[in-house]
Amino acid sequence: MGKTRDHLGRPVVAVTGMGVVTSLGQGIDDNWSALTSGKSGIHRITRFPVDHLRTTMAGTVDFLFDEAPRSAVLTEKLAELAAEEAIARAKIGTPGDFPGMLFMAVPPVELDWSVKRDLYDKGDAGVSDPYDRMIESAMTLNDPDTYEYALYACVADKTADRFGTRGAPISLSTACASGATAIQLGVEAIRRGDTEAALCIGTDGSVQVESLIRFSLLSALSTNNEDPAAASRPFSKNRDGFVMAEGAGALVLEDYDAAVARGAEILAVIRGAAEQADDFHRTRSKPDGSPVIGAMRQALGDAGIALDEVDYINAHGTSTPENDKMEALSLEAVFGENVKKIPISSNKSMIGHTLTAAGAIEAVFSIQTIRSGVIPPTINHDVADPSISLDVVPNVARTAPVSMVLSNSFGFGGQNACLVIAAGPA
Are residues 277 and 143 located together in one domain of the fold? Predict the structure, then answer.
């Protein structure tokens, strides 16, 4: 029996497991039921005081904890929950012994303000410089837990230990494209023959007061605080910014032949992956959209498919004025007039923007779209933007056969990643 290869002679990469946690709930079933019902997971923040902040809502996962832990601990816990579901679905390996590599998208790590303040308070009052006082305090206290969670690779290291992945765990952060980048690295490792399996995770538990203030200072966040559920309005004329959110998505990837040989259920195939970056601005997208256009075209080329084979586009769709316009113009540039016939929706209208985790979570939802034949809607689309002529599946889910999805992820700093996900190999 011949080996299964793609149009470039590379091993086909199958998805055999997936897991997800968002503000809508824990697990595929709860999330999918809420997502296809048009339910929003955005609500007023109760984790910390917000009375004097410009933005007071987010998509937090408060249902998981009585009191939310520090952001790095929460990021790790979300990854663990998503990975447990994905590995259980894949029925691969034995508990604590995953037979492949770990690729993990994590947010930039630093100590929360509350931890810094605690260290400062415990420091020597005779040390005048606040930073030196914190460092001195940390060294004196000999606090391994605080030290570990200040390390960039900590979350991936702990996840690797928890699931027994092989080799050095890879931590990466390409802003809001990170989750898709983690999947791309897993795909490329399997194609190269480095591993027959990969655990790819995007996770983010960053909704803390400092991150909220920083994004607010960039004027990136919605301020529609009166109606949190309606705050995320991708592609609508009255969109005013994205809504921060938390969550994690995980995929188990395998060499297609190896998965079939062990009797695994093939959930989908990652047919194409690509990324392009630019150095235009630290936060703004390049106005002509050329890196985004290039990433989409490269992903479609990597998949070896024609434009008319794409049945659905899972848009980045952040609900910021600039991003949505740029993505719409870029889609028109790639697909031409045919783009008006392709259903395009944004999961962020319901779950908010999960930042580092977004690309992985949306890959999970793209696969579920293929498997269920139901396209999640873009909710809160009550005021159409006349400059955006896309079929955004407004407000109500749609039943339609879907066998090929383009999933877009575009990050601050011009970091763009696209995935092409299919029902099966060519």
Answer: no
CATH of the domain at 42: 3.40.47.10
Kindly report, residue by residue over 173-183, the tens digit of the pLDDT: 999 999 999 99
Q: Give the C-alpha separation, 391 to 115, whole Å.
A: 46
pLDDT of residue 141: 67
**176 belongs to the catalytic site:** yes
pLDDT beyond 90 at 49: yes
d(CA 13, CA 188): 9
Indicate if 138 and 163 belong to the same structural domain: no
43 in active site: no
Quote the domain boundaries for residue 119: 113-148
Catalytic residue among 43, 52, 281, 316: 316
Residue pair 374/34 in contact (Cβ under 8 Å)? The answer is: no
Among the options 154, 200, 353, 381, which is catalytic?
Answer: 353
Specify whether 316 is catalytic.
yes
Residues 407, 421 contacting (CB under 8 angstroms): yes
Contact 83, 177 (CB under 8 A): no
Active-site pick, 176, 200, 381, 418: 176
How many domains does the chain contain in total? 2
The pLDDT of 153-172, averaged and rounded, is: 95
Instruction: List CB contacts of 145: < 8 A, sequence separation 6 or more.
Output: none
Do 133 and 104 share a domain, yes or no?
Answer: no
Task: Identify residue 419 by its one-letter amino acid code.
Answer: L
**pLDDT tens per residue, range 287-297:** 788 999 999 99
Structure tokens at 130: 């606040």
Q: Tell me the pLDDT tens digit for each residue of 59-113.
A: 999 999 888 788 888 999 999 999 999 999 999 999 999 999 999 999 986 666 6
Instruction: Show Cβ contacts of residue 79 under 8 Å, excluding neighbours closer than 6 positions.
Output: 104, 155, 159, 201, 203, 248, 250
Residue ranges of alpha helices (H) inside 91-219 are 113-122, 130-141, 144-148, 154-163, 178-192, 209-217
Domain-terminating residue out of 148, 169, 196: 148
Q: What is the pLDDT of residues 394-419, one digit of tens each?
A: 999 999 999 999 999 999 878 999 99
Residue 116 token pair: 């810094």
- What is the three-class DSSP state of 168? coil
